[in-house]
Amino acid sequence: MVKIADIVLPAGYVPSEEEEYMSPEQRAFFYRLLMDWRQQLMEDADKTLAAMTEEKAIFADPTDRAALETDRNFELRTRDRERKLISKIDRTISVLEANEYGFCEECGVEIGLKRLEARPVTDLCIGCKTRAERREKINLSEEEEILEEP
After folding, report:
1. What are the residue boundaries of the structural domains of the chain, listed by start?
2. In Å, what is the CA distance from 27 to each residue of 41, 81, 86, 127?
3. How many whole angstroms separate alpha carbon 90 and alpha carbon 87?
4. Contact partners, residue 39, CB within 8 Å, separation at least 6
5. Separation CA 77–CA 90 (nearest Å)
6. What is the rounded average pLDDT of the residues 35-58?
7. pLDDT > 80? residue 127
8. What is the model's pTM?
9. SS (H, E, C) the chain
10. N or C: which terminus of the chain has fewer CB atoms within 10 Å of its end residue's CB?
């Protein structure tokens, strides 16, 4: 069996509805998309780390120091979200390598190429995702009501 990483795609290849769903070419396309995304996130994290370790500024003005700390905190929160995204990308790559990619984890239907192109780490079809968001909204509303009771 050929590894996903070894599949050569034609220049400018984009998955098409005319192809067999999750054909080796489509899987290779999404594999490269995920790997490129992961690589970019890792490079951004390395740049942040390098910038923070090099930065040894001393500020006489407390306002300047506070602005730097605020910027650093924002950057660290962003990198933390990206760290979680990298974990999701890694999990998605494992699913892809197991030949289970592209199918809704809740109902098992095909997720759809356009949705996967827009959000390659998605694991729910649009219907299941909509229902999950509705349930989450209802749960949040119920929690708010509980908190508002005297």
Report:
1. 20-101, 104-150
2. 21, 26, 19, 23
3. 5
4. none
5. 20
6. 82
7. yes
8. 0.78
9. CCCHHHCCCCCCCCCCCCCCCCCHHHHHHHHHHHHHHHHHHHHHHHHHHHHHHHCCCCCCCHHHHHHHHHHHHHHHHHHHHHHHHHHHHHHHHHHHHCCCCCECCCCCCECCHHHHHHCCCCCCCHHHHHHHHHHHHHHHHHHHHHHHCC
10. C
The percentage of the chain sitting over the pLDDT mark of 90, rounded to a whole number, equals 56
- Dist CA 78 CA 44 (whole Å): 10
Give the span between the Cα atoms of 26 and 111, in whole angstroms: 13
Residue 111, C-beta contacts closer than 8 angstroms, at least 6 positions apart: 102, 103, 104, 122, 123, 124, 125, 126
Q: What is the average pLDDT value for the chain, to the nearest integer?
A: 87
CATH of the structural domain 20-101, one choice from 3.90.1150.10, 1.20.120.910, 3.20.170.30, 1.10.10.10: 1.20.120.910
Q: Residues 122, 128, 132, CA angle at the centre, nearest 5°?
A: 95
